[in-house]
Amino acid sequence: MQATGQQAAAGSAPVEHTGLLGLGSNVGERRAHLQAAVDALPTVGISVLACSSVYDTDPVGEVLDQPSFLNACVRVECVLEPLQLLDTVKGLERELGRREGGVRHGPRAIDIDILLLGELTCSHERMTLPHEQLLSRRFVLVPALELDFEYSTPDGRLLADALAVMSLEEGVRWAGPPLAVPAQRPRRPTAT
Fold it and tell me: Of 1, 13, 89, 114, whose CB is crowded by the most CB atoms within 10 A?
């Protein structure tokens, strides 16, 4: 794995990362699936700071003949490093009803993508940070920019600039207010 950015040194306090997750669902009660994912994040050590509105979006990728998705973005904070966070969100997907082994880009009850994780970059066979399709998917950029219009990749590319030059062909329609931010347990002070 090649990862750069802030990393906790051995024996030092863990580094807290602010990240951006993308959520999607196109099976069953789509909004309920998204909210269940948001509600589950604090149970695995991921604090939810803010949630975007939800958007009804046309399918993109390898399978276009399927129901439309509901998508949203969530600003989070955690001490997990990229691959730890990936394992954590993939575990949540399974707990929330995502079946393994399905068709890539096919129908799914829940999809949780790691879009950004602070200034960290990662190039690994299991994941890329920032997410390799972050700057090319309207259904990600619209809710992400709702949370923070100044979002940029670690190399300084603004998400707003990517959206500004994007074709309007990929349908993204506002479908409801922001998902609810779950009550968070107070953090325990760390020993100094």
Answer: 114
pLDDT tens-digit profile, the chain (192 residues):
445 444 444 557 788 999 999 999 999 999 999 999 999 999 999 999 999 999 999 988 777 778 899 999 999 999 999 999 999 999 999 999 877 766 666 788 999 999 999 999 999 999 999 999 999 999 999 999 999 999 999 999 999 999 999 988 778 999 999 999 998 754 444 444
| Catalytic choice (30, 75, 98, 137) | 98
Domain containing residue 49: CATH number? 3.30.70.560
DSSP secondary structure code for residue 63 in this structure: -
Question: In which residue are the tokens 């090319």 written?
Answer: 136
Contact 166, 82 (CB under 8 A): no
User: Is 98 marked active-site?
Assistant: yes
Domain that holds residue 98: 30-176
Work out how many domains the chain is built from and give that number.
Answer: 1
- Select which of 111, 137, 138, 161 is catalytic: 111
Q: What angle do CA 120, 154, 149 make, to 5 degrees?
A: 120
Cβ contact 77:16 at 8 Å: yes
Annotated catalytic, 56?
Answer: no
In a domain, 51, yes or no: yes
108 catalytically annotated:
yes
- Fill in the amino acid letter for 52: S
Tell me, yes or no, whether 78 lies in a domain. Answer: yes
